[in-house]
Amino acid sequence: MIPVYPTTYFGSVIYYKNLVQHANVLIETKEHFPKQSYRNRCDILSADGILSLSIPVKKPNGSKTPTEEIELANHENWRARHWRAIKTAYQSAPYFDFYGIEVHDLIHRNDKLLIDFNDTIQQGIIDWLDLPIECSRTSEFLSIQENDPRVILVDKNRNNEFEESPYIQVFPTEHSFTPNISILDAIMCAGPLARNLLLPTKQL
Predict the structure, then answer these.
(1) Is the pTM of the predicted complex or chain greater than 0.85?
(2) How far lies 96's CA from each of 6, 116, 119, 121, in Å?
């Protein structure tokens, strides 16, 4: 059975460490879009600590709107704000000059739907790191199972259940490493070698 994963906005290193364990995955599109998850937000590491970037969205059918129908809201210039935050956080990172323009262009795409926006970002990450993964979309909703990736990999309260390989970050803390943040951090800091961080970890 092909595993089902949630859509993410610049998903975490943990998300991609689990994703890379499979050659083929399905990205969930039929679920009722939940609140407070990493489907439309990501965490980056700034000089002041973890900074959450959230995409405002519109739900045409309220709480019953499936993920595939969630629209990007454009009543505020969140794209410019997100890019400014990413640039400020990573402009001194070793690989910012290499990936920065591509991240800028991904963020400033004029997609209407969140799923299209996220899928393009995810494919960019797969291409940058040469990950052996093929992603397709679900055609029907499959019931949630125990330890389902659609729950635990985008639940901001559960990512600490997984171990993460450390790397050198732009803003080390007193403990030297901040885990469980967007893969953007690893890409900006480690470049193509971020691929080596995505080794099999705790099985789902």
Answers:
(1) yes
(2) 27, 25, 22, 16
